[in-house]
Write a structure and sequence with these properties.
The complex is a heterohexamer, with 2 copies of chain A (137 residues), 2 copies of chain B (98 residues) and 2 copies of chain C (119 residues). With 98 residues, chain B is an alpha/beta fold. Helices cover 27% and strands 30% of the residues of chain B. The chains are: A alpha/beta (137), B alpha/beta (98), C alpha/beta (119).
């Protein structure tokens, strides 16, 4: 069985452009990629937030109330719901004075089984190292 | 001149801002500029808040990004779109957007 | 009553700049100000008819048409639009299409100008 | 022969990113490589038919149609295009329009992927 | 006679987006603005390059040869040809290790009478101060 | 991993670049990234050139901006689009664009 790993790495702020949003929607589209592949082929996505990208993970976005658009928060929760590994760089979280309490760590209310993981940058680097391709958003 | 400067990006170093001279200078944080109002990178608030000018931040853009009004530095005045209009017409004569 | 001219150059579908412009124009109008909006560069995107409304994108066509009906002037740069393949028939009803000097003339008579640049 | 997939997300009319993508694809094709180009976000602009050629803007429609005729695959993100008001009939002949999973499948079979992000 | 001054200030790099190009084309469009104004009204543009914006003024752009597009250089020369005051911040020029020799200082070959001026930032600040409106690109 | 990093912007400080670790790391300056190859801001060449990695710059993008090949730092190898294709396929396995 041929499975390829693609690392989606987000280091841009939310809402300035749609960069981080497209990272999320493309990662989630791995759920339907089989229709384009052979029977024994698949893709495993891994999603990592680094640098200013970790600010996408601050919880309680009001983008929908204020501007009528889906928030990055809801995209991240959808990623968890579809069992995509979500990694957040702990050095950057610390640098910005944030803690797990202020971040989107789970999507329990949607019924997601997995949670976001705060990990050292080296862990994210290792994911890039073992990925077949890196999409750097 | 009374100059209002919209800062729309999160960048703690702002060369342009630090060079501007005006009789009255105000900074208005919008879009990703609002991170300057709330984040303490490496434990320190944004240098933009220490220029001795009045600093405003747009409440709608704070909320969009999950930044509560409570988390905003005490030096910053939070305004909404209505408040922006008044700043533009009543407090400043010229406006630039960085 | 004073006049505000907003030049919107940077906006991309998917960024929040057009949203900002529309909300600011709405708030200014409510307070009785005149508002001109100039769309240039990628900002001309806002003038394109038939943008499908998705939850991931703010859909501004309805709001801005209401603003135009309420007296706001929205004009797009003709050359910038053509370069993007937006022709006359693609323009949202009620919007203008002019050459760049229109923006300067609008600034001439404006009390305040908010020029939102390109990045 | 190897395959290069280029994801072009950032490009704006007026920036040089689409130019970069087209020139790189051309050079790779000349060396015998397969090339897939995925246009997403503002990159979908490149797929819009009828962009008028001005000296201030690089006009890529002719070049990229030749590349497609020479075997390069150019596919635009359907949702991103619709959100911008680019409908099926606006698509340059020979270009594809697919959902996002197409890009991942293209990456699956690619030897190299150059993903050009959004700013 | 009512004349208003508009300051076009460019602090962005060329070619990344069309920002600096639009600054030039809009400044030059002041040449035709009278058609929209009353008989005794007009606009005086002043164009200033500051910060990384001064890099637009490096001469000898090959944008036309390489990418088939008008260069910023030809726009700046057109501005000089239409008698628009062009100011370049000398502190920034110095910071980037440039000199007048490497910059677009005139458009003699087109028949322009005026030249670019290297001036201290304070001079540019004063132009902003006396302008009716500032368009910051 | 053999990682090729396209740098498309002029920014002397590049946090991302300084964190990346790879068995083989190369920097490829394109678009406004090419200013890093030629400018000496405050008399110093760009710190990006001092990372000990091989640095390339795209000749077409240098010329577009009025930067002659002669003005490029001796640490930088100048390549054209043809050369980029070879770098992508022969020198690196994975590529990212900053």
């Amino acid at each position: 069985m041929a499975i390829k790993k693609i690392a989606f790495v987000v280091d841009k702020l939310p809402y300035k452009t749609e960069t981080s949003r497209l990272a999320l929607t493309h990662a989630i589209s791995s759920q339907t990629v089989e229709i384009h592949l052979e029977e024994d082929e698949n893709i495993t996505p891994v999603l990592a937030f680094v640098g200013e990208g970790v600010l996408n993970c601050i919880k309680d976005h009001k983008a929908s109330d204020v501007y009528g658009i889906t928030s990055l928060e809801s995209h991240i929760k959808n990623a968890l719901l579809t069992d995509i590994k979500v990694l957040i760089c702990e050095e950057d979280v610390k640098r910005f004075g944030l803690t797990a309490d202020s971040l989107i760590m789970d999507a329990e209310e949607l019924g997601a089984d997995i949670t976001s993981e705060l990990v050292p940058f080296d862990t994210i680097m290792e994911e890039m190292n073992t990925a077949d391709h890196i999409l750097y958003f | 001149m009374k100059l209002g400067v919209f800062v729309s990006q999160y960048s703690r170093e702002n060369d342009t801002l630090s060079r501007l001279k005006a009789e009255k200078l105000g900074v208005i944080l919008v879009q990703n500029g609002v991170y300057n109002a709330a984040l303490k990178e490496d434990g320190k608030s944004s240098p933009i808040l220490d220029k001795g000018t009045t600093v405003y931040a747009l409440s709608e853009d704070l909320q969009t990004r999950g930044l509560s009004v409570d988390s905003v530095d005490s030096k910053v005045k939070v305004v909404d779109y209505d408040g922006l209009v008044d700043l533009i017409f009543n407090e400043y004569e010229k406006i630039i957007w960085l | 009553m004073s006049k505000l001219t907003i030049g919107c150059f940077s906006s991309l579908v998917g960024s929040m700049t057009t949203d900002f412009v529309v909300k600011l124009a709405e708030a200014a109008r409510k307070k009785g100000h005149d508002v001109d909006i100039w769309l240039s560069g990628n900002g001309t995107m806002l003038s394109k008819k038939g943008q499908r409304s998705f939850k991931d994108y703010s859909s501004l066509e309805k709001t801005i048409k209401e603003l135009v009906a309420g007296g706001i002037n929205v004009t797009a740069c003709e050359a910038c639009a053509e370069a993007r393949g937006y022709h006359k028939e693609d323009l949202i009803d009620g919007f203008g299409r002019k050459s760049m000097d229109w923006y300067l003339a609008s600034c001439f008579s404006a009390d305040r100008v908010l020029h939102i640049g390109g990045e």
